[in-house]
Design a protein that fits this description.
- With 747 residues, this protein is an alpha/beta fold.
- It is built from 21 helices and 32 strands.
- The chain has four domains: 196 residues, SGNH hydrolase (Rossmann fold, 3-Layer(aba) Sandwich), CATH 3.40.50.1110; 198 residues, Rossmann fold (3-Layer(aba) Sandwich), CATH 3.40.50; 92 residues, no CATH class; 54 residues, no CATH class.
- It is 29% helix and 23% strand.
- The strands form eight sheets. Strands 6, 8, 9, 11, 12, 13, 14, 15, 16, 17 and 18 form an eleven-stranded mixed beta sheet that branches. Strands 2-1-3-4-5 form a five-stranded parallel beta sheet, sandwiched between helices. Strands 19-20-25-24 form a four-stranded antiparallel beta sheet, with no helix packed on it.
Length: 747
Amino acid sequence: MKKILLCLFILLSATIQAQKIKVACVGNSVTYGHGIEDREKNSYPTQLQRMLGERYEVVNFGKSGATLLRRGHCPYNEQEEYKAALDFAADRVVIHLGLNDTDPRDWPNYRDDFTKDYLALIDAFRQANPKCKIWICRLTPISHRHTRFKSGTRDWYWQIQQNIEDIATLANTGLIDLQAGLYDRPDLLPDALHPTTEGAGIIARTVCQALTGDYGGLQMPMTYSDNMVLQREKPLRIAGTANVGEKVTVDIAGQKGEAVTAPDGKWSVTLPPMKAGGPYTLSISAASGKLDYTNVLIGEVWLCSGQSNMAFQVSSAVDSQRKAFLEFAARKPQIRLFDMKPRWATSAVEWDISTLDSLNRLQYYRDTEWKECNEETANRFSAVAFAFGQMLSDSLQVPVGLILNAIGGSPAEAWIDRRTLELEFPDILYDWKQNDFIQGWARERAALNIRKSANKQQRHPYEPCYLYESGIRPLEKFPIRGVIWYQGESNAHNMEAHERLFHLLTKNWRENWAEELPFYYVQLSSIDRPSWPWFRDSQRRMLRSIPNSGMAVSSDHGDSLDVHPRHKREIGERLAHWALNKTYGHDCLPSGPLYRSVKFKDGAAYITFDYGKGMHSSDGGELRTFEIAGHDGLFVPAEAQIIDGKTVKIWSDQIQNPRFVRYGWQPFTRANLVNEAGLPASTFRSEASPVSWFRLPDLPGTEKSPSSGVSAPFTGISGGQLLVAGGCNFSDKPAAEGGTKEYYSDI
């Protein structure tokens, strides 16, 4: 009897074994588990086995250094692991190859073979088991810290990623994205390439979801909650995740749409544009669950972001403004607030190990949800954003939703995604805590906050990319009308770097939302910091190069000692002026006077402005802070007078031949030019005229050239005479060679 039972047990075990689904993990050192402590227990295939359970048999066929390319330096198809994988005849094959093909020995020479070689590899596994299902993988990340990153690996990596996506379509395989889960986690790539045990776990979970189709059922991004505002009068995209193949139904205000969840667990429904209104219930249902969001309004949604002056709360505004805000909020207007506050302020303290671990996991923001506007919620909200929303609500008479995502002290580079910086400003990523592109104050504060960390790749909110990864990407492209932005204090030490960064930021966010969103920003205010006049003028000049943008001047409400002026209502309303004029088409001035051009005539400068209608001084006194200079660029105070209602004439008895003008060019300025709407003029400095140098022979009888700064007519040289024409300027300069003089012209 015992022998019979033993035979039955052996037979049953063999049957169970035969019924197991065999999974082959094919790849390079990342699959093998290079660098992982106790690889046999912690490589991604081993962790995948634990996740899938006893019904599956997972085997690791990774080979360190292997290339997909058959003419590469270590072709996978020539390795023992390849032969063993074919003999295994798996039911499921997961292929992750291509990282080593970024080697300069491989991709530059044999890139044309990549598609052919990959298709041959896929075909070989199908021949080994015609019933097998195959997934190929988008590559895990290669960090900018890799030694060959800028010399070629970065660019070849992205070319290979695109090839892999195309191959999945050509070969009709599944496609697993192994980049997404690790790309925002450089702390899990200690050598810039190979993931830690935790990183391998992220890979395993991603593969497990693809193999099983189980993505945890119906789920929505954090921006969906009761009391939300959805954007009116634009195609309304509702998107989330669910299990593969599930039909998802979306229903709101009589509008209904359906979608089927894709193999990556994602689905989206786009509803026709809706008019302002509500409250409604947004219902989303699938086989794995149903979600109902109540008290939903349709209206205008704006993202309000930046650093501490945007985060500055209503509760800290001057008393008169705080009281006015709260009186408005008490009437319960149709304004809804989504307040993304950080868990930890970047104050001058050392964070504990638990906090540091949460930061690495991008868990920087507190959980939040949409709230109705009342005295309590408004008091804790951004004063600038609330003033902006109040003016929109009053002017448009529609619901307004405000998403606040502003972090004190944050530099612009923290708000830009990794790929943008890798491709267009990689140098700012390197050794960021010692990098002069990043403001010294921000680096010092970050170093203090993370001092207890032993992880060389420890994250911090001021690190390039961090706030985009932890605070913008999680918004999941939630439909918005536009962006208001108040930031720059933490980049004012280097206006040239900021100009690059701000262009990248606006471009990056518009690409994320797939539309040219309005982007209205605040020019820095007044404070006793020497670089700020130049920085403010840089912000002004960017209006010409960033489309669909606007700038609110704040220098008239600065504080000589405090970087956080308490007058915020005016700033929010000035941002609203831009939105009402440019976004909503209202007939109102969007800005105070903005410098357009200058002409020099009869020893004076004549300046014209955009939005200069009804210009006057804000205090009824003489115009202040205009300055004028000659070619030497040495400015002196100038008298100023408004003529014909739209031009300002300035002059000084000290400058007979002016060539430059500037206004408000003090760190803390008392400039007082405004237009008929009371909106202040921006800081500006006129651009230099181009200077061309040429030489004239020092001929006997030639007239002595006029001294520097004197205009005279020049038409050439005739009969030993120097003839000059209006607008040319000459100076006696030491001859570079004997018998020759150098002259210059600014026309």
